[in-house]
Amino acid sequence: MAVSLADLVATLDLAPAGEDRFSGLSPATGWRRIFGGLVVAQALVAMTRTAGNRPVHSLHGYFMLPGDPEEPIGYAVERLRDGGSFTTRRCVASQHGRPIFAMSASFHAPEPGALDHAAPMPDAPAPETLPSPDQIRSGLIADLPPSVRAYFGRDASIELRPADAARFARRPPGPHPARQSVWMRAAGTLPDDPALHAALLAYMSDMTLLDTALAAHGRSVFDPDIQGASLDHSMWFHRPFRADDWLLYAEDSPSAAGALGFARGSVFDRSGRLVASTAQEGLIRRRDRG
């Protein structure tokens, strides 16, 4: 079942469940486990509600157990520090009496006039020149496996346009550079709420990132003999942005070893401003065919 943007935004509006406690639901996608980006986004929402008016500038989380999409998720926030410039929070997400995810986040009071520099945006085709999710699902790109075409139809809340979708073909020509670029945005107009835009970007940031580590081996997370799972996720927010405008997710993977793949991402807005950075390590294990 495709998730609409309204569905996703509704799941980010957590229900109060006591002092610094919140409850969240997973949208009905038909997946057997909760998408990691949703838990990151909901945990960020929970902590933001305890941080006053300060915007988030960084988060660091660990996935411990797969989430059950049929059960509510409990979020317990711990207030670690309220300083003159920074606010620090920790959040544990639990189901069935066990923690499934833990994340810390730091919130920073704006400081106008500070030093400012940023890396330039890499070259990438304009999003309008790339196949839309509907075109990918319809078979515009030859030899895409059904699992890849289905992926682009599962989440109608987010529009993804990979710069090189052809690499997901059944018989790729061989290893690729360990990098990829994907344009992404919320599939509709969002309210003017910076905290909501931050949560939506946190949600999107778990899409496609780990797959970059497999590109170097001519593989993808859609291959049936690859077991992939996010293990941790970190994110830094540098500048204001809108999650409903096109954002370029430039990703690379400097290392994969011991069934662990490491990937990094830089998020640029359409004008070329670096607005966020990400890092993730995940499991990329070959399944035993025997």
UniProtKB/TrEMBL annotation:
CDD domains: Thioesterase_II_repeat1, Thioesterase_II_repeat2. The keyword Membrane does not apply. One of its GO terms (biological process) is acyl-CoA metabolic process. It comes from the Bacteria. The keyword NADP does not apply. Belongs to the C/M/P thioester hydrolase family. This is Acyl-CoA thioesterase 2.
